[in-house]
Amino acid sequence: MRPDVPSYGLFSAIDVDSGKIAWQHRTAQPLIGGSASVGDLVFVGEGDGHFDAFDSRNGSLLWQYQTGAGICAPPIAYEIDGREYVAVASGGSFMFGTQPGDTLLVFALPNK
C-alpha cells in the first residue's frame, strides 16, 4: 500500500437477478477476509478488528463486535443440534499492518 494513496474497503452486495449493486458498506481499511451468510444475515471482518453483521436485504449494520485484532480470514457458519453459529479468526496481518492477535471467536445466533 502506498502511503500517499488513501485506502479503504468496500463491501458490496450484488442483486443476482439484475447484476446490479444492491448495497455497499465502506470501511476504513481494505477487506481481505471474505464473508459468510446465514439466512438474512451476512458477516464480514474488518482490518481494524470489527466483526460486522448486516441485513443482507438492505445493508443495514445490525451488530458489530470489536475483536481486538485485524480480521484477515473469512468467517464460517455452521449448525449443531439446530443452533446456528458463526466463527472467525482474529489474528491480524503483518503484511497489511493490522493489529496482531491469536483469537478464534465463535458466536451463537439467536434461536429462530
Run of helices and strands: EEEEEEEEE
CATH secondary-structure class: Mainly Beta
SSE-based structural type: mainly beta
Proportion in helices: under 10%
- Major sheet size, sense and barrel closure: 4 strands, antiparallel
CATH topology tier name: Lipocalin
Low-confidence stretches: none
Per CATH, the architecture is Beta Barrel
Overall strand count: 9
User: Which strands sit side by side, in order, in the main sheet?
Assistant: 3-4-5-6
Key words describing this protein structure:
mainly beta, flat, 4-stranded antiparallel sheet, single chain, 112 residues, 9 strands, Lipocalin, 3-stranded antiparallel sheet
Mind explaining what this structure looks like?
The chain has 112 residues and is mostly beta strands. The chain has a single domain (9-108), classed as Beta Barrel (Lipocalin), CATH 2.40.128.630. Helices cover 0% and strands 47% of the residues. The chain has no helices and nine strands. The strands form three sheets. Strands 3-4-5-6 form a four-stranded antiparallel beta sheet, with no helix packed on it. It has a three-stranded antiparallel beta sheet with strand order 7-8-9, with no helix packed on it. Strands 1-2 form a two-stranded antiparallel sheet. Strand 5 and strand 6 form a beta hairpin.
